[in-house]
Amino acid sequence: MSVIEVGIIIQRPPYKSETATLGFTHAISYQVVDIYLDDGQGVTPKVCLIGEGVLNCLNNHKAMENYGVTSIESHIKNALLVDLDIYVCREDLERFGISEDRLVDAEDMGADKKIQVVPFSEIQKILEQTKHILVF
Hints:
The chain is an alpha/beta fold. It is built from 5 helices and 5 strands; from the N terminus they run βαβααβαβαβ. Helix content is 30%, strand content 22%. Strands 4-3-2-1-5 form a 5-stranded parallel beta sheet. α1 runs parallel beside α3 (72-81). The mean pLDDT is 89.
């Protein structure tokens, strides 16, 4: 089986831009590329949030309430629901004073996957193993 791993780096905050949302949209869309590939081939995205990108993972953005738009929170929940691997940089969470219990989870939707908080060195290893890297 030939599986291509794609690294998706999200480093932009969820405010004033669609950049982070586009990163998650790309990651989720890899679920449908299998229809264009040969048998045994696949694409596996690895989403890594670093720098200000970790702010996307905060629970209760209330974007619909405040701005009338869907929040990045719903994208993250959908990504977890389709079993995407999401890695968040531990050092950046600490820098912003964010505890792990403030991060989005999709248990309410029945997801088994959870956001994985890892040191930056682990994110580097993950990205070194990917064939392609997209930066958002």
